[in-house]
Structure formats: C-alpha cells, structure tokens
Amino acid sequence: MTKFDQSWAVQEAAKREWMAENSLFREDDEHSSCGVGLVVSVDGSKSRKVVENGISALKAIWHRGAVDADGKTGDGAGIHVQIPHHFFGDQIRRTGHEARHGELLAVGQVFLPRTDFSAQETCRTIVETEVLRMGYYIYGWRHVPVDTSCLGEKANATRPEIEQILISNSKGVDEETFERELYVIRRRIEKAASASGVRELYICSLSCRSIIYKGMMLAEQVAVFYPDLMDERFESAFAIYHQRYSTNTFPQWWLAQPFRMLAHNGEINTIKGNTNWMKSHEIRMASSTFGEMAEDIKPIIPQGSSDSAALDSVFEVLVRAGRSAPMAKTML
Fold first, then answer.
1. Which candidate, 66, 76, 50, places its Cα nearest to that of 255?
2. Side-chain half-sphere of 58: how many Cα atoms within 13 Å?
3. For residue range 5-63, what is the model confidence (pLDDT) as tens digits?
4. What's the CA gap between 108 and 114, in Å, rounded?
5. How is the chain split into domains, by residue range?
6. Do 258 and 14 touch, CB atoms closer than 8 A?
7. Fewer Cβ neighbours under 10 Å: the N or C end of the chain?
8. Using CA atoms, how far apart are residues 88 and 143, in angstroms rounded to an integer?
9. What are the tens digits of pLDDT across the range 280-298?
C-alpha cells in the first residue's frame, strides 16, 4: 500500500499556528504583481492553436511568480479554456453513455482530499446529491490524469485528488439557466461540505461553458502536470492564463488562478472594508433571478479567500444574477 509523507504539511500548519500566536505575522496583512494574460480567437472559432498559444504565453511569464526552495513548488499557475466537447464526448462514451448531439454538457473540475478516502467518498456524495437535487443527470466521474514528477516536495505534499464530474443537461434548459443553476449547485455543495466538516473539497469550475486547470506548480509545468491540455482534441476560442505571485495569502492549491470568472492581479488595498460592506449587504440581498435559492448562495465570499478570490466571488454573483460583465465591473 502506498504511503504518503504528510510530515511537511503537518509541520507547515503548526508553523502557521505558532506564527499567528507568537509573532506579528498575520495572513490578512500579507501583500506585488501576478502575471496574467489572454489569448482569443477574434472570430470566435475554437482551435487547438489558441490553447497552444495560451500554454506558451503562460510559460513566458514564469518570472512573475515565486519559487520555493525545493525549486519546483510555485505560488500557483493555471489556464482557463472552453470545454472541448469532442474530448469530453469521448470521456462520456467511456462511462457507457452517449451524449446527444448538440446537448449541453457540464464539467466540474473538483479537488478532493487525497489521502482520506472516507472524506473523498463524503465529498462525492455531497456533489452528486446537489446535482441530482437540481434535477440533472450525472454521466459519471473521471479521474484526471496527472504527472506528479514536475511537482516540488511541498506542492506534492499538499496535492489534492483531482477528478471531474460529467453532467447532462437532462432538463433541456437554455445555456444561461444551466450555468446559473450550476452556480447554485456549487454554492450548495460548498455549504454542505462546510457543514460536514470537510475542508478539502474545492470546485475549481462547474460550468457548461469552460473549465479551469490550475495548481501549485510552476507556470511552465501546468501542461506537463495536466496531460489533458496536450491532447489535440482540446480546442478553445479563448485561453485565460495566470501566474500567481502570492503576497496576501500563503500559496495553496485552491488559491491558484484563474478563478471562475476572473484572473486578477490582486493588491486590493481596501479589501477588508470591501469584504465587510459585502457582508452587510447580504442581510438584505435578494434577486428575482435566484428567487428562493438566494439564501443558498450566502455567504458570498468564502472564508480564507485572497483578495482576488473575494473579488471573483462578488463579480460572479452579480453576473449570475443577470447583469452583464461590463455592468458588474462598474458596480465594484
């Protein structure tokens, strides 16, 4: 039986607790510049070239992030692309199903506890319960292939189990409704996981439009760690990429970017005030778009979020409530 060395993770957690109690160190007070960019097809057509250019551009901004003493652990890097339907259509066939031509498909990129198999199963049950509760059909789960040889010691010690859930639009709703209900599903999952005491569950993306591959590797190793990205069937009309420079929170797998809506540079000097204002607005927050489901998406900002993650959460709820991205931007 394979044994995983968790000593570093335990020591790191103990060190953080000691610093919080015995020094001037505060995670909230940590603050320079991430690397972020976009490759897009101007005519809106999907192509393999866009993904390849996005990967190459991500490699070119390796200098915008820090590297741990082990020489391989990074602050976090990732890429956000459209869902390649041909690729995932083949994955669905492997589960014994056949996606109908033109049917919307949703994919969830999920981080699970790696060494606690009981917690893993709890997480899968929570995810499946909320998807079925909303009335959608699950094709199955897919184990995401990874190459751990490119990871540093610290990144590998904290590495999650990475799986994908494949969901059918069995209700036949339009894309906007499907995307909004997937958002509600994700927020319900997060609340249920928190109530169950499972802290390691994180959903990078749950969408019928796009998917995010990210982690605590160096920028030049993202496509090495995720062989999916090197598959010729992986096509997209855009590629948003990000190399994190961790300044206001410690590097963690879930804080790597891009996030679900944004890839952001951070450095929000008013983050505490903004967060407090958002909490005060939640008390009277309502939406005709969400209706009775409005309570399911609170709190808007998850605990422990970086400034960029908090911004992404607020931006996302405004867009899912029916506002356009430019309008949401002007409101923040």
1. 76
2. 33
3. 677 778 878 887 888 888 776 666 554 567 888 999 999 999 999 999 999 999 988 87
4. 17
5. 31-260
6. no
7. N
8. 13
9. 878 777 777 888 888 888 8
Residues 6+ apart with CB under 8 A from 66: 74, 75, 245, 246
- The CATH fold assigned to 31-260 is Glutamine Phosphoribosylpyrophosphate, subunit 1, domain 1 (3.60.20)
Q: What tens digit of pLDDT does each residue of 305-318 get? A: 777 888 889 999 99
pTM assigned to the model: 0.85
Secondary structure of residue 194 in the 3-state scheme: helix
CB proximity list for 182: less than 8 A, separation 6 or greater:
106, 167, 206, 207, 208
Amino acid at 13: A
Radius of gyration (C-alpha) of the chain in whole angstroms: 19
Q: By the 8 A CB rule, do 215 and 157 touch?
A: no
Q: Is 127 in a helix, a strand, or coil? A: helix
Q: Which helix (H) or strand (E) holds 18?
A: helix 7-22
Residues near 117 by beta carbon (within 8 Å), at least 6 away in sequence: none
Token code pair at residue 58: 């991500």
- As a whole number of angstroms, the distance between CA 132 and CA 17 comes to 39
Residues in the chain: 332
Whether residue 123 lies in the annotated active site:
no
Select from 204, 233, 161 the least CA-distant residue to 2. 161
Q: Which of 34, 123, 204, 208 is catalytic?
A: 34
Look up residue 147 and give its two tokens. Answer: 């190459």
* 83-86, Cβ contacts within 8 angstroms, sequence gap of 24 or more: 83/107, 83/207, 83/208, 83/209, 83/210, 83/211, 84/46, 84/231, 84/233, 84/234, 84/235, 84/236, 86/233, 86/235
Cis amide prior to 299 (ω within 30 degrees): yes
